Predict the 3D structure of the following.
Amino acid sequence: MREEDYIICVDSQKNAGNITDLKGAEIAAIDHHPVTSKTSGVEYLYKDIRMVGACCTIIVEYYKDLNITPSGDVATALLYGIKMDTLQFSRGITEEDIEVFAYLNSLVDEDKLRRLEMNNIEFDDLKTYGAAISNIQVFEYLGISVIPFDCPDTMVSIVADFILSLIEVEVSVVYCERSDGLKFSVRSERSDVDAGVIVAKALEGIGVCGGHATMAGGKVPAESLPSLGEYRNNAIAERFIRALGLKF
């Protein structure tokens, strides 16, 4: 990328802790994450930040405003995105998301949508689930697990949702180890626990993060890992336990 390139941030904002500051000028932001102290000072030529369940909902409304009917493939992808982001319409759902679902429902390719929902992990992903299950620890309503190898961001998020499905768990924290540090995904289904706030408290001084009340993510760069000491996983668990105000 070049300095003179224009960048549109979609499902993200400049200076949010979980995106790279790319070369070029961020001229627009289309997002459904809350504005924070780090992102509030950015000036865009165009900004559309709404508290809806999925960023796909905003994109669909652009189609409607322009009187353009999305193709079957586009409609299917957007509807699948909304379902994934809202955990099958059970997380952060708004009236706008419901209205967009009704609009897309008649346009989707049902066979493709079914295949996407039934085949969303690969064979190699099974070891990720296995590692997360083997390493999970539960402290009251907090479930925390480490994946001791690199895996895609999407897989970390999927495993965090999986851990949250446990009856005993209402807040899940999953992170994987990478050559450049640690990647975190945090989920909360408690009205009194904001995932974005908790990950910010837990990673204060060692990492960067971003997100909203039910979903958040974060990174701890490799250069910060020595500060966690010899028993790194214990130190991370302690940070989240303290951030939540739980007992050891």
Q: What stands out?
A: The chain has two domains: 6-117, 124-244. The chain has a mean pLDDT of 93. Strands lie at 6-10, 25-31, 46-49, 137-139, 142-147, 171-178, 181-188, 208-211, 215-221.
